[in-house]
Amino acid sequence: MPVPDSPAGAERSVSDVRIELHTGSRDDLRPLFELAEDSAAQLDSYLHEGRVLVALAGDEVIGHLQLVGSDRPGVLEIKNMAVRESRQGRGTGRLLVRAAIALAGSEGRATVRVATAAADVGNLRFYQRQGFRMRAVDRDAFTPATGYPEPIVIAGIPLRDRVWLDYDLGTSTGRGASGADRPAPDGSG
User: Fold this and answer.
1) Tens of pLDDT along 90-131?
2) What is the β-pairing status of strands 75-83 and 153-154?
3) Which residue in 22, 82, 141, 145 has the fewest CB atoms around it within 10 Å?
4) Is 29 helix (H, G, I), strand (E, B) or coil?
5) 7 against 66, higher pLDDT
6) Which of 164, 138, 137, 162 is nearest to 152 (CA)?
7) What is the dihedral sign for C-alpha 64, 69, 71, 72?
8) Under a CB-based contact definition with an 8 Å cutoff, are residues 155 and 117 in contact?
9) What are the start-end ranges of the E strands in 23-174?
10) Rounded to an integer, what distance in angstroms lies between the CA atom of residue 181 and that of residue 36?
């Protein structure tokens, strides 16, 4: 099933890639999910939730993005996203995010949110370049108590905290309200 068109020009650097909703087994995609999730217990808890967009080069799945609902009306969450290591840095992740944003917009959603490790500066940079804005920090989200092994170190930074970012579909750049007047991702504000 095709997803709504991505913004013009999004396919320039990845002309051989198409984005579709995944209709097959999620278990077949587990190795991709594991690229983005260090906790098997956490992955088991959400692997079969929501919808999954896949990036295909020919018939080969080279990336995925999982979208799940939220406790807040109008909000979709990117729960897990990864691109095969051999295909990273070529725009596939950008295509997946643009397709997710287009899908959310076609459904009348107001916000797409995502959480990533505070230690993963590459992911933080990636999402901000897609128009996402910082929203909140959950301290000590990645601990043995939450299913993550210790120690995990990313680029010399201990993995401890989770950063929430959001994309406001009310603007084309994701730079809507400052965030002070928008609800917190956990529903507390």
Assistant:
1) 999 999 999 999 999 999 999 999 999 998 899 999 999 999
2) unpaired
3) 145
4) helix
5) 66
6) 162
7) positive
8) no
9) 51-57, 60-68, 75-83, 111-117, 133-138, 153-154, 157-158, 162-168
10) 30
**Pair of tokens at residue 53:** 């967009």
Q: Which of 35, 36, 34, 32 shows the shortest CA–CA distance to 55?
A: 32
Residue 44, amino acid: D
Element (H, E) at 104: helix 92-106
Both structure tokens of 183: 């609800």
Fold adopted by 17-168: Aminopeptidase (3.40.630)
**Distance separating alpha carbons of residues 103 and 77, to the nearest angstrom:** 12
How is the chain split into domains, by residue range?
17-168
Over the stretch 20-30, which tens digit does the pLDDT of each residue have? 999 999 999 99
